[in-house]
TrEMBL record:
Allows the formation of correctly charged Gln-tRNA(Gln) through the transamidation of misacylated Glu-tRNA(Gln) in organisms which lack glutaminyl-tRNA synthetase. The reaction takes place in the presence of glutamine and ATP through an activated gamma-phospho-Glu-tRNA(Gln). Its EC number is 6.3.5.7. Residues 1-446 form the Amidase domain. Belongs to the amidase family. GatA subfamily. The gene is gatA. Keywords: ATP-binding, Ligase, Nucleotide-binding, Protein biosynthesis. GO terms for biological process: translation. One of its GO terms (cellular component) is glutamyl-tRNA(Gln) amidotransferase complex. It comes from the Bacteria. The active site is at 52 (charge relay system), 132 (charge relay system), 156 (acyl-ester intermediate). Heterotrimer of A, B and C subunits. This is Glutamyl-tRNA(Gln) amidotransferase subunit A. InterPro entries: Amidase, Amidase_CS, Amidase_dom, AS_sf, GatA. The keyword Ligase applies.
Amino acid sequence: TASYLYAIEKAQSLNAYVAVTADQALDMAEKSDERLAKGEGGALEGVPLGIKDLFCTKGVHSQAASHILDGFKPEYESTVTQNLWNDGAVMLGKLNMDEFAMGSSNETSYYGPVINPWRAEGGNKDLVPGGSSGGSASAVAGWLCAGATATDTGGSIRQPAAFTGTVGIKPTYGRCSRWGVVAFASSLDQAGPIARTVEDCAHLMTSMAGFDPKDSTSVDLAVPDFAAAVERGVKGLTIGVPKEYRVEGMPEEIEKLWHQGLEWLKAEGATIKDISLPHTKYALPAYYIVAPAEASSNLARYDGVKYGLRVPGKDITDMYEQTRAEGFGREVQRRVLIGTYALSAGYYDAYYLRAQKVRTLIKKDFEDVFNDGVDAILTPATPSAAFGVADQDMATDPIKMYLNDIFTVTVNMAGLPGIAVPAGKDGQGLPLGLQLIGKPFDEETLFAAGRVIE
Ligand code: GLN
């Protein structure tokens, strides 16, 4: 814990942490030592972790990287973080992220962009770590924590993992409790870990997961020992390769890496099968209706009364307006506008309801291939390697940024588990990731196949 705190201090230029809880961390570590000395201790005893700012941590900075939650220190602890502390893990601090988890580059944070510890060979340009869990990915890749919590609504665990050469898994919807995690789009949000290896992720997820009566969408299923699945291998498994993921303009090196990944799995005894997921092309537009719609509803609670920032106005309505105008960043305001429009009377059927129907078709595509004998699906994690800070201008061209999510959003729309594993590097020496998509609640196969690729 002390050495990670030292590393955090030295690496402030990465801007990965928004709050460091040094005293509390040392105290937790000391208690871990005492338990270990007595021969006690949990599965993660003394393991120092970074926590995404989206998780409520009792009495500690929890602002979803937003100005509107200024000074908010919750009275309660999220179930996922409580599970980690119950197993002996140590909290180093809270990690930077895109504001309310809306973004793919960590540039929408109120605290400014996070820097990716990776640089192109010979280059000195700062690169983004991806988003929205950019602080989590950068801190893990930069050795500023042993592992981190993250969340994934449309790719926010897997895309940053791919951009930083780390491993990230989005569990099946319902596997980890959403209680105490600031809501973005409730029907898509899932918590999961980012760590340096598949095995580390498996250990973290075993602790984070589990039924929680406080989350009505939490599923009452026993949590397997995910670490036990890591060395299981892929012999006899059928891996699907969806033709719709060969998108136009994808760099050749990503295409090659995808092929390489299939060869690795084949060499270990898997069978490769060409498959089709015909509704893939509708996933991104449908996601960018469903996610903002749910966000606009979830964000209605930030009104200057209950939490954080209050900007005084001449009456209560004016106070609401001033607070929300100043407290929310541009991207969050854009989502609230899109979402409110999509949900409004007269447009609801044309946009939100239609997007939900498309969602059902996407889910059915996956059900069909899984019913047809496919055990897991291999795709690239992202259509490019990490790009430069300020390279993709969200203010003028948000659609370009949204295209980063093209391979990841389908998984959230269908509620499936997906893992991103580092698989190679591009011509500039930057990490590239592959994604494995699994059947509902079959994260074990993803850990086993991910281990073969990493
Ligand atoms: N980049 C996507 C978005 O901005 C996904 C974010 C996420 O998964 N939290 O909505």
